[in-house]
UniProtKB/TrEMBL annotation:
Keywords: Aminotransferase, Pyridoxal phosphate, Transferase. Homodimer. PROSITE patterns: AA_TRANSFER_CLASS_1. The lineage of its organism: Bacteria, Pseudomonadati, Pseudomonadota, Betaproteobacteria, Burkholderiales. It comes from Ideonella azotifigens. Its EC number is 2.6.1.-. GO terms for molecular function: transaminase activity. It comes from the Bacteria. Residues 28-392 form the Aminotransferase class I/classII large domain. Belongs to the class-I pyridoxal-phosphate-dependent aminotransferase family. It is an enzyme of class 2 (transferase). Its cofactor is pyridoxal 5'-phosphate. Pfam families: Aminotran_1_2. This is Aminotransferase.
Length: 396
């Protein structure tokens, strides 16, 4: 039966973890996967998460099936976070939100629904984009193409190229956009540029799908979510996937969501009914634990305040590491200007290092980054940054 089955390639990001774990180099550093580790290189268990978990254990409950669309309080909290507490959109009942298995799950639910809605539509992702975007939408049956995004010479965004591609896309094309902290480049577009993107989406009848996996890692929760308000103000229907993997350090709990903005309450009910079929036929209904923690934190004022503080702590530590990274590269004798690292946002830096350089870093020094040159700055700390920058100096 399986004689003709070919060996699939290793996942470009998660596959690195397997290789890293098997590496016996005591100096090894994992800057591959997008995971935040603290100043001591440890994956944090947030105090707000620990407190919420303790509350849940205290009032331990039996685990029945959740509703297909997830915990109601969780979905409501996701909406408040993404669209803003007092958003008229929510009062009008114009957002269908479902709990999803991580941000990836939210993307897949949206992709499956869109495929049913418009089977011939094409998907456009940024060039480059998160490695899994192409695979996920391809697997959902779409033809996936790219719009220009990264400008290597400018060390920024090729915005004219991006806009031109959107302005020539066919009606119904699904455009995957990174709401903030672009993965992998770390370069975001400005609010005024978002306005132009939104105008193109509206004029061409495109379907915007915002991937918001890093809300709070750019400038703050509200600040990073402002782009959603811009889409809402434009009066268009769109998709937003949410992830709490990073912002709650709950990677393994797979806590995410999908929100679909619709034109009316009636439309929302119909969209929600379709999303529920997608969920039911894939995994029936979502798991309890992670979403219960997030809902508890988001709806308990003291825990919510603690979370915001802890998230700010992660954001600020990453920013500090960006500055230190640039300085220590210089100190290690690198003459190339790497100051662009401090203008990038979020967990990643698109370092400009080539695939052979990334391979050398991995094979000779045990410094793991993605072949594209993406480095997870959120995994740098005072103990490993010297070794990392000296290793980079040697491969340049
Ligand atoms: C990443 O880009 O490293 C993260 O989003 C983790 C993942 O699932 O790829």
């Amino acid at each position: 039966l399986f004689a003709a089955v070919e060996m699939a390639p290793r996942d470009p990001i998660l596959g690195l973890n397997e290789q890293f774990n098997a590496d016996t180099n005591p100096a090894k550093v994992n800057l591959g996967v997008g995971v935040y580790t603290d100043a001591n290189g440890k994956l944090p268990l947030l105090a707000c998460v620990k407190a919420a978990e303790a509350q849940l254990v205290e009032a331990a409950r039996a685990r029945g099936y959740l509703p297909i669309d997830g915990i109601a309080a969780y979905d409501k909290a996701v909406q408040a976070l993404v669209f803003g507490e007092g958003s008229p959109l929510l009062a009008e009942g114009r957002v269908a939100t479902v709990q999803a298995i991580g941000g990836t799950g939210g993307l897949k639910l949206g992709a499956d629904f869109l495929k049913k809605l418009n089977p011939t539509a094409k998907v456009l992702i940024s060039d480059p984009s998160w490695e899994n975007h192409r695979a996920l939408f391809t697997n959902a049956g779409f033809t996936v193409d790219t719009y220009p995004y990264y400008d290597a010479d400018k060390q920024g965004v090729n915005f004219d190229g991006m806009l031109a591609a959107l302005n020539s896309a066919a009606a119904g094309t699904v455009v995957v956009l990174h709401a903030c902290c672009h993965n992998p480049t770390g370069y975001d577009i400005l609010p005024a540029q978002w306005e132009q993107v939104i105008a193109a989406v509206k004029a061409r009848g495109l379907v915007a799908f915002l991937d918001m996996a890093y809300q709070g890692f750019g400038d703050g929760i509200q600040e990073d979510g402002a782009v959603i308000g811009q889409f809402v103000a434009a009066g268009i229907d769109f998709f937003v996937s949410t992830s709490f993997s990073k912002s709650f350090s709950l990677y393994g709990e797979r806590v995410g969501g999908l929100s679909v903005v619709c034109a009316s309450k009636d439309e929302t009910a119909r969209v929600l009914s379709q999303l529920k079929i997608t969920i039911r036929t894939n995994y029936s209904n979502p798991p309890t634990h992670g979403a219960q923690i997030v809902a508890t934190v988001l709806t308990t004022p003291a825990l919510r305040a603690q979370w915001e503080e802890e998230l700010a702590g992660m954001r600020n530590r990453i920013k500090k590491m960006r500055g230190a990274f640039v300085e220590q590269l210089k100190a290690a004798g690198v003459t190339r200007d790497f100051s662009f690292i401090t203008t990038q946002r979020g967990m990643f830096s698109y370092s400009g290092l080539t695939k052979p350089q990334m391979e050398r870093l991995r094979n000779e020094f045990g410094v793991y980054g993605v072949d594209s040159g993406r480095i997870c700055v959120a995994a740098l700390n005072e103990h490993n940054i010297g070794y990392v920058t000296q290793s980079i100096a040697k491969v340049i």
